[in-house]
UniProtKB/TrEMBL annotation:
Its EC number is 2.7.1.148. The active site is at K8, D134. Residues 196-270 form the GHMP kinase C-terminal domain. Catalyzes the phosphorylation of the position 2 hydroxy group of 4-diphosphocytidyl-2C-methyl-D-erythritol. It catalyses: 4-CDP-2-C-methyl-D-erythritol + ATP = 4-CDP-2-C-methyl-D-erythritol 2-phosphate + ADP + H(+). Residues 64-142 form the GHMP kinase N-terminal domain. Pfam families: GHMP_kinases_C (PF08544), GHMP_kinases_N (PF00288). It comes from Blautia intestinihominis. This is 4-diphosphocytidyl-2-C-methyl-D-erythritol kinase. ATP binds at P92, V93, A94, A95, G96, M97, A98, G99, G100, S101, S102. Pathway: Isoprenoid biosynthesis; isopentenyl diphosphate biosynthesis via DXP pathway; isopentenyl diphosphate from 1-deoxy-D-xylulose 5-phosphate: step 3/6. Keywords: ATP-binding, Isoprene biosynthesis, Kinase, Nucleotide-binding, Transferase.
Amino acid sequence: MRLRAMAKINLGLDILGKRDDGYHEVRMLMQTIQMYDLLDIRRKSSPGITLTTNLLYVPSDERNLVYKAAKLLMDEFDIQEGISMKLTKSIPVAAGMAGGSSDAAAAFVGVNKMFHLGLSEQELMERAVQIGADVPYCIMRGTALAEGIGEKLTRLPQLPKCYILVGKPAVNVSTKLAYENLDLQNMGAHPDIDGMISDIENGDLYTMVSRMGNVFEPGIIGKYPVIQEIKDLMEAHGALKAMMSGSGPTVFGIFDDKNKMKAAARVLRSSHLAKTVFATEVFNRKD
Ligand SMILES: C[C@](O)(CO)[C@H](O)COP(=O)(O)OP(=O)(O)OC[C@H]1O[C@@H](n2ccc(N)nc2=O)[C@H](O)[C@@H]1O
Ligand SMILES: Nc1ncnc2c1ncn2[C@@H]1O[C@H](COP(=O)(O)OP(=O)(O)OP(=O)(O)O)[C@@H](O)[C@H]1O
């Protein structure tokens, strides 16, 4: 069984406050893009879970979110058979694109199917939050509003056709540290999430981009100015808007024209500001 684990970008990211358990209340607009890891799952004769990955620096033991997700379901349903999984990563790691979360989502969907557990998407999403705040959304996919710690999801209409240029500089950001270092009193401008939702409902991409924002940006860009350089390059080369995704450091640019995006991708590649440059488009549930 082969599954695609799709990457996400945050079109808008606002943080409302900190909860007693240390997690933050968020209001985010989530969008899946056509960039994915591949997860192959096979039954094996001996019990237990084995995992291999194509990247040496990604753990392939019980620390991997894929492993954790598969184990959670297999323990709950007391599955005695074993599985072997092969994870082929293309989504940059520790990049703000929910790579690990999406891999875990694929494991939930795959194990549910393989062993005919009969869990609905909603039932999978309820379990998924134990693995990570973004995992329920990665099961849902498409365009959505995420509230709570990211697990309270409301589906939105799909975005008007647009193209997404991804640029990840050669730095990694820990999500945990990004939240810990957030200065809740000095976050900069809050994005107009409600305005963005109306724009999406009206199919108005141009007004939507004018309201975009990510409250993580000032803090993370202060540490890694290369993020601002990538944003500026994308906007100077035709992006309607370029913004950091999640807790960074990946920058994405939104384009209304594929050729303009491709031209910007060429300039970005030759600038050497980004280690990974990927030209793609949004992914909708119907794709
Ligand atoms: C930054 C985003 O990627 C935006 O989509 C997400 O909010 C992060 O979601 P995630 O990586 O699935 O997060 P988790 O793996 O659950 O948590 C990693 C760490 O981030 C912090 N965290 C995460 C989500 C949240 N709403 N508040 C938090 O404070 C917690 O300190 C936690 O220890
Ligand atoms: N399947 C996985 N893929 C990548 N990293 C994983 C995976 N499982 C566990 N990890 C660990 O999690 C860390 C962060 O990985 P990940 O790529 O999911 O971060 P991220 O892009 O910041 O995700 P998010 O946007 O959800 O915050 C890595 O440094 C790695 O050690």
